[in-house]
Amino acid sequence: MKKIFSILSLIVGLAVFAQKIPTVMKTEFSQIALQDKVVDTKGSSLTLENVIKEYNGQIVVLDLWATWCGDCIKGMPKLKELKANNPDVKFVYLSMDKTEEAWKKGVEKYQIEGDHYYMGNNWKNEFATSIDLNWIPRYLILDQEGKIAKYYSVKAEDPEVQTTIDQLRKKE
């Protein structure tokens, strides 16, 4: 009986804390979310709106991650493979690490090439709330105008990620 209770408790626990796929797939960031601040690798503070505008005209893979996130680290080889297969796509990493030091050490340790920004360990900021962030890693694909083309993916090898990139290329 104890064993059955333990198994049922585990199943219920997993169901309660499991990630939930958003029911609405958004195509734009709210203006208030775009005003959240991030820090670049040089220590400068800027808004997410400024970050996204920097890539205007390009396809962007936006990766929300952290060094403490086992799934993020486990998925890095597939993310690097996606990047290697799409050299024309910009990869932008938004770290939710607990400290800037951990973030910078993680970028170096895992040899993550791309553009990096530190969001801080804040799941309650406007940006995170606006995109229904409930799990990392989380990948969003932005089109050439900075709009969201792929709203929700938690695996770099999700076939829809590459399909979305390919569809955006056809629009160029």
Automatic annotation (TrEMBL):
It comes from the Bacteria. Its main location: other. Residues 10-170 form the Thioredoxin domain. GO terms for biological process: cytochrome complex assembly. The keyword Hydrolase does not apply. Residues 1-18 form the signal peptide. One of its GO terms (cellular component) is cell envelope. It is found in: Cell envelope. Keywords: Cytochrome c-type biogenesis, Disulfide bond, Redox-active center, Signal. InterPro entries: Thioredoxin-like_fold, Thioredoxin-like_sf, Thioredoxin_domain, Thioredoxin_ResA/DsbE_sf. It holds the Pfam family Thioredoxin_8. PANTHER family: THIOL:DISULFIDE INTERCHANGE PROTEIN DSBE. This is TlpA family protein disulfide reductase.
